Amino acid sequence: MSKKMKSSLVLLGLSIMVLVMAACGNNNNASGNNATGTNAISSNASTNPANDTKDEPETKVELTISAAASLTDALNEIQKTYEEKNPNVKLNFNFGASGALQQQIEQGAPADLFLSASSKNLKALVDKQLIDTDKQINLLSNKLVVVVPGDSGAALATEADLTKVEVKHVAIGIPESVPAGNYAKESLTNAKLWDSLQSKAVQGKDVRQVLQYVETGNADAGFVYKTDALTSDKVKIAFYVDPATYTAIQYPIGVVKATKHGKEAEGFYTYLQSQEALDVFVKYGFSVPEK
Q1: Residue 217 CB contacts under 8 Å (≥ 6 apart), including other chains
Q2: Which residues lie below 8 Å from residue 29, measured CB to CB, with a gap of 6+?
Q3: Can you spell out the DSSP letters for 82-126?
Q4: In 3D, which of 188, 172, 168, 164 has the Cα closest to residue 245?
Q5: CA nearest 63: which of 285, 283, 268, 279?
Q6: CB atoms near residue 235 (< 10 Å)
Q7: Which one, of 195, 186, 203, lies nearest residue 248 by Cα?
Q8: Residue 201: beta bridge partners?
Q9: Is the distance from CB of 98 to CB of 68 less than 8 angstroms?
Q10: Which of 77, 111, 151, 238 has the fewest beta carbons under 10 Å from its own?
Q11: For the chain, how far is it from start to end, CA to CA, in angstroms?
């Protein structure tokens, strides 16, 4: 091969090498630029407030309130007002006899507050350290009455009249678990009528069932609270039971220690003591004890 041809081949080879190296350099630059651009975008995305995840709406807290059945109507009205003012809180009521509600709390049933129709039931929970002494108060008071069906012609003016022949059935809450029934038993015992009326007694699981017995004519008379009598147009008050014959009726309220929503529970506990809430209770016939 001639020297001239060899020189040409060497030059060609060098030219090819230069071109290859130049191409690789361009590719590396392009790759570097792309990487830099991607990092810049990622960096901008992480620091741009517009791309941050928006705060999720506050979770609604559900409170369970175990309350005496006689508080049903007043608390249902209060619920509407309170939830409108506190949209992050949902009130769930567990209405029943105070004694039964006390037992439920003792057995670990979920509850954030307890509204009893008897100081005895709430005190039992305080004594067992299930309700904080500093978070309980007597909220309301009530009166015991005897009601008869709205169309009844029976002339009843005292507890002694319940022994009359025309009175076949007398409704009363189970004394062991229903405070209204216990107050009635206490009064009848003091009047020496409890034993003589046992054959006529029809027991209800709570004061609202007693009211229902009278409304439906399954009882000729029944012992309920004044507030229960005022909720029904199917009964009328025959007479007020002498308050000297039974323990004063008080409605204490307390925050259950086991609550998982202490702040919200105390908020509702405080609200129930406000004038706005007390006015609702008074509208339904409750009284506010003097402080």
Answers
A1: 149
A2: none
A3: HHHH-TTEEEEEEEE-HHHHHHHHHTT---SEEE-S-HHHHHHHH
A4: 188
A5: 268
A6: 24
A7: 186
A8: 170
A9: yes
A10: 151
A11: 125
Instruction: Tell me the per-residue pLDDT of 68-113, one tens digit each, with 9 for 90 and over.
Output: 999 999 999 999 999 999 999 999 999 999 999 999 999 999 999 9
Burial of 254 (0-12, 13-18, 19+ CB in 10 A): buried
Find where tokens 């091969």 sit. Answer: 1
Structure tokens at 223: 């012992």
The DSSP secondary structure of 21-41, one letter per residue, reads HHHHHHHHHHHHHHHHHHHHH
For 215, the token pair is 């409304």
Listed in sequence order, the residues at least 6 apart from 222 whose beta carbon sits closer than 8 Å to its beta carbon are 146, 147, 148, 170, 171, 172, 204, 210, 211, 213, 214, 235
Write the single-letter amino acid at 63: L
CB 81 within 8 A of CB 276: yes
Q: Is 190 exposed, middle or buried (0-12, 13-18, 19+ CB in 10 A)?
A: middle
**Which residue has 């409304």 as its token pair?**
215
- Cross-strand partners of 240: 145
CB 66 within 8 A of CB 98: no
pLDDT in tens, 220-265: 999 999 999 999 999 999 999 999 999 999 999 999 999 999 999 9
- Residue-wise pLDDT tens digits, 120-133: 999 999 999 999 89
- Average pLDDT across the chain, whole number: 87
| Distance of alpha carbon 70 from alpha carbon 68, whole angstroms | 5
